[in-house]
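To illustrate the input format used throughout this study, we show a single complete record. The first block contains the structure-token representation of the backbone; no residue identities are included at this stage. The design step must infer an amino acid for every position from geometry alone.
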């Protein structure tokens, strides 16, 4: 009898305790193994409300201001989403990435792995589907304190594969391992120095393997408790993707209560985003405050440069216009140019004897002997070298035949 009474009382206590726990948090085994971001958001919201000094009693009754693509997208910001198999499992549907692309979604992070063995069932299909869109794709790994860094690095790299220059850098998701109970967080068993060293080891290994600088996804509430704001300087080379949720989930109210050393690149502001016609379930929405070019620069994205068409070969040079003749320029042809025809003088204008006289070239002055007697006749001996005629204006080496003695055989100038 006493044993039965004890059992009844124990059951009554369990019923009372369970009644106080939100229904979404009952499946602790599932939360420990593979928790959706939606489940984790509940914990993040609780911690954020504590940080902001808001009434926790209003958390469940909060009227969610749903963010909708593309209507709530600002022109001065870049918006993206992150997904895991939980999103598609919840709606029993598949993502239509062509419709997502049409709704002004600029980037998408997909869960690839968790720990040393966990691999998201929908990562491969969605990763390949994103390749044919303008959406910038990225992969994230949920870091676990329960397996070695080396094994987790191998799991992530094998699952993700090679990155393209236009892909987003890898992300390390580091937060509570138990979304139901912050006190049951697996990281609590490590010192803050050990947690920081563990995280840095993963980041450095991924950067070495991929050549890309990873991004840290976390919440300030978790970081403050497990690593500490004083250690942020050790992570200064890594961009921060911060998760912080406030009643306004439109992404207009910037994260609050952040110390000066907290500088974030991406802000995840809601888990209640909607993409009309693309996915019949809520999605996580993040924002980058800046232009698309600034986003690419901040995330280390290199867009492919279009290869220019080869330029046509040089066009053949046009035939040069004939230059001035020696008569026009008043100079004799240059014998070194190999000219073989004596240029003729330009004809004088008709009807102008003065112009005709001035246009004709002046003959070279004759020697007194040449003026007093006619030119010598050639010798009868054919082997004798004939004398060169005087006053000839033809250039040397000319092949032109010149008759110099009135009907006698021509003398060819050699």
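Output of the design step:
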């Amino acid at each position: 009898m006493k044993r039965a009474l004890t059992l009844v009382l124990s059951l009554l206590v369990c019923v009372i305790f369970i009644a106080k726990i939100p229904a979404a948090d009952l499946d602790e085994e599932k939360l420990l193994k593979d928790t959706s971001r939606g489940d984790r958001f509940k914990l993040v919201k609780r911690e954020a409300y504590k940080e902001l000094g808001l009434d926790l009693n209003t958390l469940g009754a909060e009227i969610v201001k749903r963010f909708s693509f593309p209507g709530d997208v600002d022109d001065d910001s870049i918006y993206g989403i992150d997904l895991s198999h939980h999103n598609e499992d919840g709606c029993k549907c598949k993502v239509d990435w062509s419709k997502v692309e049409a709704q002004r979604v600029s980037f998408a992070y997909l869960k690839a792995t968790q720990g040393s063995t966990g691999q998201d069932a929908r990562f491969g299909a969605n990763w390949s589907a994103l390749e044919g869109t303008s959406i910038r794709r990225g992969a994230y790994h949920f870091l676990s304190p329960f397996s070695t860094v080396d094994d987790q690095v191998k799991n992530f790299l094998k699952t993700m594969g090679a990155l393209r220059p236009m892909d987003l850098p890898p992300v390390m998701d580091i937060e509570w391992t138990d979304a139901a109970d912050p006190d049951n967080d697996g990281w609590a068993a490590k010192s803050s120095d050990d947690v920081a060293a563990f995280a840095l080891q993963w980041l450095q290994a991924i950067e070495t393997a991929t050549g890309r600088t990873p991004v840290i996804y976390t919440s300030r509430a978790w970081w403050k408790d497990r690593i500490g704001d004083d250690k942020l300087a050790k992570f200064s080379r890594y961009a921060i993707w911060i998760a912080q949720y406030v009643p306004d989930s439109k992404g207009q109210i910037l994260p609050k209560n952040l110390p000066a050393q907290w500088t974030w690149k991406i802000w995840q502001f809601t888990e209640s985003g909607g993409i009309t016609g693309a996915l019949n379930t809520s999605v996580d929405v993040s924002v980058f405050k800046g232009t698309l070019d600034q986003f690419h620069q901040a995330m280390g994205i290199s867009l492919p440069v279009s290869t220019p068409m080869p330029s046509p070969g040089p066009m053949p040079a046009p035939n040069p216009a004939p230059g001035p003749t020696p008569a026009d320029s008043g100079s004799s042809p240059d014998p070194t140019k190999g000219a073989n025809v004596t240029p003729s003088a330009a004809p004088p204008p008709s009807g102008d004897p003065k112009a005709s006289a001035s246009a004709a070239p002046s003959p070279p002055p004759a020697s007194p002997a040449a003026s007093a007697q006619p030119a010598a006749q050639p010798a009868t001996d054919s082997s004798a070298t004939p004398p060169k005629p005087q006053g000839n204006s033809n250039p040397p080496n000319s092949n032109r035949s010149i008759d110099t003695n009135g009907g006698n055989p021509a003398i060819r100038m050699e």
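Structural context for interpreting the output: The chain has 13 helices and ten strands. Confidence is low (pLDDT under 50) at residues 12-32, 58-64, 327-362, 364-414.
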